[in-house]
Amino acid sequence: MDNSAFPVFKTKIAGLNQKFDLNDPAGRKQYFEAKAGPEVKKLKAYLDKNSFVAFLLGKKNSGKGTYSKMFMEIVGQEKVGHLSVGDLVRDVHQALETSEQSKQELIEFLKNNYRGYHSVEETIDLIMGRNQSSLISSELILALIKYEISKRPRQALFIDGFPRALDQVGYSLFLKQLIGYENHPDFLVFINVPNAIIDERIKYRVVCPICQSPRNVKLMVTSEVGYDEATKAFYLMCDNPTCNKARMMPKEGDELGIEPIRVRLETDDKIFQQLLKLHGVPKIFLRNSIPKAVAAESVDDYELTPEYGYELDLATKKVKVIEKPWTIMDDEGVESYSQLPPPVVLSMIKQMVKILEL
Ligand SMILES: [Zn+2]
User: Fold this and answer.
1) 10 Å Cβ neighbour count for 125?
2) Ligand 1 center to 245 CA (angstroms)
3) What distances in angstroms separate CA 78 from CA 50, 69, 135, 180, one per listed residue?
4) Which pLDDT value is given to residue 213?
5) What is the pLDDT of residue 57?
6) In angstroms, what is the span from residue 254 Cα to ligand 1's centroid?
7) 237 forms bridges with which residues in the sheet?
8) Distance from the alpha carbon of residue 207 to the mean position of ligand 1, in angstroms
9) Complete domains list, the chain, with CATH
10) In the chain, what is the greatest distance between 2 CA atoms, to the nearest angstrom?
């Protein structure tokens, strides 16, 4: 992807030499206080009385959920909601299968709110028969978004996964009117992540077999790492106290990395490029990667994603974790580092305050 629309956002502040532990909620709180204290305060005051609709735009696995959850952690969970359209279709599908009451409620809602080419009965069959949101009509997706929002308190919204096809772009321009947010601002949040980053996030992903917590052998370690004599491989142990140091396992197919979702990523990119051309809607530009050449002047070292390697101490049989900066090639072949989520969210907060004119 072309990076020209995505200037490097400087998060380094001259004179601020304190290091923050960005993996710890308390450390993150101090970090945002130190680097964006006034902006966070303004946003919190704004969200007491107002809301917004933000469209999160980026490829699959670009960190949309992570960034919106971190934003919520900073300004207050109750003031902001994250609506994943993919999850929504799955949840509705599941509710229809398991609860007659949910089914009746949805039928009632659709009778009053859905306009499209299928009868309500056909529509229900469509949801029951398929769980891929891309196969469901845009009119139905809109009705489901409206349904979900009708059940929630008024909150600022991060919409994740819409528009998901080019024919939905037109709807997104008027979504706030359709969902009763006409008096609140809306804007687009573009997240630019090189494919190499997505590839390694998938390739080295592991999950706990008990609590399903995700980690990454290369990029996100747990506090204890084990070594398997038989396979000569290192493995992560779940940090969750109730999981008893369960061995985290890769999911089948993840070793292929980005390959199985390449077509999906290309579609995501087309929509992304199309939306970049839009006029009249405010835009926020987030980039995950920082060219190595400008990293030192733009960001602090602790804001970059480290890569982890392991060594076995033969005498003690203990595993030593070795940390170094993670280097990848961005989509234009520029040697780059990857930023941890907090500095990316920091740049989102600062751009948002400007857009909202706070
Ligand atoms: Zn676990």
Assistant:
1) 13
2) 7
3) 13, 12, 32, 19
4) 92
5) 95
6) 19
7) 224, 247
8) 8
9) 1-8+21-193+278-288+340-358 (3.40.50), 198-259+292-338 (no CATH)
10) 71
